Amino acid sequence: MLRSVAAVAVAAAAVAGCSGGKSDNANPGGGFQVSPDTPAAKGNIPSVSWSLYAEPQTLDYLYAWDYPINTVLANVCEQFLRTTPDMKIEPGLATSYTNPDPLTWVYNLREGVTFHDGTPMTSADAVASLKRHLDPELASAWGTAFRNVASIDATGPLQVTIKLTKPDALLNSMLAASPGTVESAASIEKAGKDYGNPQGGVNCTGPFALDKWTPGDSITLKKNPKYWDAKLVAKADAFKFVFIQDPSARVNALVSGSVDGGYMVPSSAYGRLRNTPNGKLYFGPNTGSYLLAVTNLQGTMGDLKLRQALSLAIDRTGLIKAAAGGVANEAKGLTPIGAWGLAPEKAPTYFATLPPVKQDLAAAKKLVADAGGGAGKKIVLATSPLAPEITVSANAIQAAGKSIGLDIELKTVTPDAYTALFTDPEARKGIDLVVTSGYTNTPDPLEFYESMVTGAFANYGNYSNPEYDKVYEQAAGTADPAARSDLTAKLQDIALRDLTAIPLFEPPHNVFMNKRITGAAPGIAQLYWPWAATVGAAG
Fold this sequence. Notes:
The protein is an alpha+beta fold and 539 residues long. The chain folds into 3 domains: 40-59 and 206-284 and 516-537, D-Maltodextrin-Binding Protein, domain 2, CATH 3.40.190.10; 81-188, Dipeptide-binding Protein, Domain 1 (Dipeptide-binding Protein, domain 1); 289-506, Dipeptide-binding Protein, Domain 3 (Dipeptide-binding Protein, domain 3, Roll). Helices cover 28% and strands 22% of the residues. The chain contains 16 helices and 23 strands. It has helices at 5-19, 67-73, 123-131, 169-174, 185-191, 247-256, 270-275, 304-313, 316-323, 347-352, 361-370, 388-403, 415-420, 446-450, 466-476, 481-498, and strands at 45-52, 78-79, 81-83, 89-91, 94-101, 104-109, 149-156, 159-164, 181-182, 208-214, 218-223, 236-243, 261-263, 279-284, 289-294, 329-330, 379-383, 408-412, 433-438, 501-506, 509-514, 517-518, 536-537. It has a 7-stranded mixed sheet with strand order 10-11-12-1-13-21-14, with helices on both faces. Strands 16-20-15-19-17-18 form a 6-stranded mixed sheet. It has a 4-stranded antiparallel sheet with strand order 5-6-8-7, covered by helices on one side. Helix 12 links the parallel strand 17 and strand 18 (408-412). Helix 8 packs antiparallel against helix 11 (361-370) and helix 15 (466-476) runs antiparallel to helix 16 (481-498). The longest helix is centred in the C-terminal third of the chain and has 18 residues, at 481-498. It is globular, with a radius of gyration of 22 Å. Residues 1-29 have low confidence and may be disordered.
């Protein structure tokens, strides 16, 4: 479903209004503005360098489940549909689609599109790309999106028809994210097990092509001069992503100009980046919140009273100041109001009825006592130095637990290993809690709540509630956006009641660019919008 401009305005107003309005560069926090764009580039540029906080584990779209891989792939591979910077959905590789009956979706693909190797895109490529999500041996991170798919067929040289076993209103929107990626079928077959790695590479249709991947150092893209969309032909001849795991080193690289820009800069550096004359920090729309995800409901944190107690022990006002540089709002729900693009006019009502999130140590201690106390109960919280939002939050949560009698052990992992926590169940073994930034890839918040359905890939704690699953199925089968939004609000209520994750705070998305360049979309849509194509010379 489309997200209206009003939804972006609601998100921006909510963030700016609660945080003080216009930017105040005199302090690290202060007020801040949210905008879906940055000043347009004034010309082309030979090359751009960009920081990534971690190296992608792969460039296979099946596993595009985190910021580093999506930040790169957004410019290389494309989907049936496209998510725009203002969180609308528009035609992509598919020029049009129809839904002739509740169990059928028909997509007409764009003529004249070629892959980076010059071969033409056909419906056979699109079908092969989508069917990979159905292969259990490949274990796609997006397999849940296809759970109701009965068949995917080429019904013409440039037409694809998807048949469903039951109505699924979310599937169409998901084709504007990684599930809808189209890759060359011949390239997938030729690369085999090397597909998506430095040896096998990728062969897609985007404004940039993969040029070189130097493991442990960087990924370099080159301009696709035959890109089909004249409005988004790349302004840079080359785009180099440099892996810089250490937050301080990443900020130093941005300020010194050794890299030109980067997304998700550390909040601890907001003051420095706002005050430097060498560039500018922008804040954009965000559909995500920082959450404390429960990754083991079979362990100590399986006790709802302990989850409630820990939530009540957290000082979110202090957490926002320390972990988010003062640039965030307290989170009442598991998604921010800006994620509710399906029916934005209804979202304020949903959030108005949510209970306030406040610190209450006396109530928290009573809950711990009612649960039999915290002595001898092991709780492991994963943390990583990749961002202060994670390290500071982890330390604050550990201290909050200690204040009410819960012994929380911190387990520090590398940024690469932290990314693996969200794609590899083996990596989560022995972990009870993890600080994460949960977000939606589409304007439909139902996408987020799908992750808590029994057996869903992103159901990290193996939460299972028949009541929740039933409401989800009702929502997924409801075509009317307003009615589906009402049902999604019920899912939000159940998830908050059961505390499948503990809400922490809602920051805006961010991007920093030095004086040399401009044009990058500052919002979270950069995960699928070909944002690097619009980056060019600032003057």
